[in-house]
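Why this split exists: single-chain examples teach little about how molecules sit against one another. For that reason, every record in the complexes split bundles all components of an assembly together and asks for one structure covering all of them. Below is a record exactly as it appears in the raw files.
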Amino acid sequence: MIEDVKPAEEFEKNTNKERRKQMKKKIFLALLITLIVMAVYAGGGKEAEPTGEGEGTLTFALITKALNNPFWERMGNGARELCEERGWNFLYLAPTKAMNLEEQNRLMDDLIAKKVDGIVLAPVDSAGVVPAIERATQAGIPVAVSATGVYGGDIVTYTGTDNYEGMKLVVEHMVEVLGGKGRVIVLDGLLAATVGQDRRKGVDDVLAKYPAIEIVARQDAMMQRASGMQVMENLIQAVAEFDAVIAANDEEALGAIEALDAAGMLDRVMVSGFDGNRDALTAVRDGRMVVTLIQQPEKMAADAILAIIDHMNGKEVPKRLPTEMILASKRNIDQFKDKIDG
Amino acid sequence: MVNRSKFRAFFLRVPTVAWVLLLMIIVFTISSPHFFTLHNISNILSQGSILIILSMGVIVVKITGGIELSVGGVMTLAGMSMAAALVKFDWPIPLCLIVALLVGTFFGFLNGIFVAKMGIPSFIATLGCQGMAFGIATGMNDGRVFSGFPRQMGYFGGGSILSIPVPVCLSAIAFLSSFILLGYTRFGVYVYAIGGNEESLVLSGKAAWWHKVKAYMYSGFMAGLAGIVVTSRNMTSQPMVGFGMEFEAFAAVVLGGSFIAGRGSAIGAIIGALFIIVLRNGLNVTGVPTYLQLAIIGPALIGSIVLSILVERGLRNRSYAGK
Amino acid sequence: MPVNNQPSANSKRYILSLIRVCREFDRARVRQIAFRFFRVLGLLLLCAIITVSNRNFIRLANLINILRQASAQIIISIGMTVVLLTGGIDLSVGSVMTVGSAVSGFFLTQTGLPWPIALLAALGAGTALGLIGGILVAKVKLPPPIATYGMLWIGKGVSFGIMGSTPFFGFCNEFRYLGKGYLFGIPFPIWIMAVLVTITFLFLKYTTMGRSVYATGANQFAAKASGIRVDRVLISAYAISGFLAALGGVILCARLNAVDQDIGAPFLLPAIAGPVMGGTSMEGGQGGVGSSVIGALIMIVLTNGMNLLGISSLWQQFVIGLVVVLAVWLDVAIKKRS
């Protein structure tokens, strides 16, 4: 707005009166707005009831953690396929800034306003989304979480791989390949969420059993390919010799593999991942990655939606619905040809 | 003649973005029955409170000609400090709130000294403070979050006064504060003067630098307030929670008309903030998947900004010609 | 950013002020050289401190590693330098990087065309975006932060339009050579970086257009009055920045063998902080490629050094923020002592 130039002296008196009149107008306007807003909230609170009846088609929404990992895309695909099959509406949302809690909360609130029939959520922060989940449940919208758990909130169920057990499988395989001894670098990921914590615990619990295996370095590579590569490049310089890299997920592992490859170390160092993305499976087939764990994000999302349906029909739903996971290594990689090419 | 210039004056006073916002609201209302409901309107206001509070601080700095990039980090650190006081030291809630506000104001003070006393460009100074704030926030608890707050802490994010949610009340207070500050106090005059032409202010004997510092301190205070709200809403304090908010606040004040130093207003900034929130909310409620949204948000933002600038230039040129 | 907006009718006055500006250039150049020396000293001191704590730093392999990691960043900083010299700023570089990656990724994986086409398409896209930004600044007269902020969003939209929600990965080897290859034992990105730094340095110092960039930044109106096509200078500056940003994106995805959502975002702020730390002023007219590279190197060495020293990545942000502020302050304080 343009600030008016101060008028000359002669106009001072008139403008004072004008200003007082304007002030009164503004105060009146402010009071009016306040009353309207109060009315909005007083009325709006009561309106937060679920529909679902009277509309025929159900609408489900999936909120993932980001748009830049094929893992989330696979979740979206799984959910979308199920909804298309059953004739339901489906909406796929994610924070535009990867792993952003504030955006996830906003998405939750928008979905509540949209009155969807069910929400599947992959939480960025296992504690930070709880109030949003509570708001949804209060509004009568069932919420199921997938791929990462939450600390609290009345959720329908938690579908997803058991990250802890899965990581243990991966690490046991690596130990076997290493022959029970060696120097290992551990790349953690996303320790703010249960997924990072669980996988970290899995690594630690298994390696504790093998004193001949030494963890020579450990860093958080943020579950992204670029940071995985950069962290690996730095560690290559900082650490003299090592035999293996255990990564928290495929994207980190693939970044690390690029770094190792560029340094000419890839044939000496074993790398493990977690997720079973197409890129990773290709890497296992080509011998660049030793092992990864195939998760089934498609099924996780679909299971979550089906659980919500069961819940809506009054059926009893177990609080934890583990999804099957399969270890993929050189030995059995041929089984997964379709995942690589298809 | 008089009527036409009053007409023009009215259009000059109302930021162009307000009309675009109105248009957007109409479009969204047509596209979805869930958009223009009492519930969603209250949702928009509550969601937007954090951005609004931040924008109310940033606008003051922007008018002085500075670019405020630290609000995201300062908000996060304020929240983390408050949480630390609450969870680690068991301080009573009112004291913890003061901690958050003090942290925010302190970083504002730092920014002000960097820019006004040490002559560092505001872009760099606030960027540096942002890094420092995020750094402390991440380092202070090893990258982990603080949680386990007492139930009453949720009041600032979830409670309500006279059935208006507390965040909305706080954002209204922030708006009024900036509105009055910028339009009705001597400090406001100085703020615009600094933005418009700093030399004249110096020549007239005022310590312009101290007013600049105050502007940044005010922005820091708002960031602290926003930190309280966001921490209370999430009931956890995350070290990266404010990441990227400074760009949203920047977009909000620019949309509201603060294109160059010495221009801008609290009303413009709040409309700009609402524009952003309504845009995202409308797209979500209408059911547009996120990856498509990204293709829409950009053109909407830049289109509105360019439109605002062109309209305002056109109107101003015509009014000069009329004189 | 242009400060003075008082056009005068007397052209002689303009020429006089331009001469004054040039003379100040000389004085400033002497000062500049003296102080660049100081900054290099600072950089060397930093290296020395790190080496004392961890001898691995000074190893050739590590230095090459640092340069290679930094190559994309430095290339973008060069583009940003040119824009900063005109008194503007380019907030879209991160987004244009992503576009460069996305376009090359698209051409490499979704079409059967040979990789040079992918490269050209990416560079073309970046230059186009830069051109639009330049036109917005020069013709539509939008303030640079706003114009390029808009381009940032348009870039995001373009990247998403190309990628959808599927990241691209798996590029052919010839293309990857750009990022991973070695030439005479030195990684290819470092060669690209060196060539670009040299070209830009010569361009800024010895060509009319280059000198016009400085003049435009120092005083846009004086420059215009003395016959410089300011519009063309500005548009070219932003186009160069877009081109280099796209090139940076190409190198990045060649090294990473993948493209994703916002691959370029983290590069924006260091691309501004580095040059400013190195002495390129945000107001325009001062600084240059050399300064910017040194500033960028200081930031990069600092990060690498902190990793080698085992400083928790949690606190690294704090250190970088502090160093940026202190370095720029030092620069400003020294400049004031005229």
